[in-house]
Amino acid sequence: MAPSSAHLPGDEGDGRPLAGRTVVVTRPAAQAAALAEPLAALGATVIVAPLIEIVPLPLDNELRKAIFNLAWYDLVIFTSANAVEAFVDRLREAGGESVRAGGVAPDFAHTKLAAIGPKTCAALEQRGLECALVPDAFVAEGLLAALAARGAAVDGSRILIPRAREAREVLPETLRERGATVHVVTVYETRAVSALPVSADAFTGADFIAFTSSSAVHSLAALLGIGDVLPRLAAVKLCSIGPTTSDTLRGYGLPVAVEAAPHTAEALVAAIVVASG
Is the full-model pTM beyond 0.85? Predict the structure, then answer.
């Protein structure tokens, strides 16, 4: 799939807080609106320049086994809305009760669901699924703390984690240390785009670049040149949705101008507004 881009122009003289500022949004095209639209509404010229693609993976034997044994699990943990979408799609493909009933709730009748954050929870609820737990801090460590506070995921618990191919191991490893049986299934992967979706000047000349994943950081560094990325982005304020993405930026020697708190698109927009003042 060829990368896509879009420009949402702002108006420098209209008095809005981001008027005259240019913000590059690096999210996949289908998810960019949550950042691009509010930024444009605040006056920014927004360049949507996806640096990664979300690719659902086919139904394999391991995933099929997990789907047909959903009732065996005490808890299913989703760490992204992408994981929800990909897993439910594979559930339907596997021909579970969801296909016959027109929904997906019957498949999860005896299993509690946890989400890493409100967007992931909303993705579950949009599919008729009840989200039993959302942590206050929208990172793996926050989810672990919330599970501990609830007395969930204790010794003997059976847990399923549908997730991306490349993901942090802190969640499954810590749960196993606590005595849980944890099965991880891969339902999608992120792939770097093969070429910059807009000119390099659009990145290097922007006021802000918004990153919502480490994958996007790695992609831009590779496309601009690992040795060149620091000097080429020296004048740009780099904005991160959370600590993992921030750590990745710093790993390339790139300063983090703002980090969203909480780790949501809405908070990232607010942080960019503060940084523009």
Answer: no
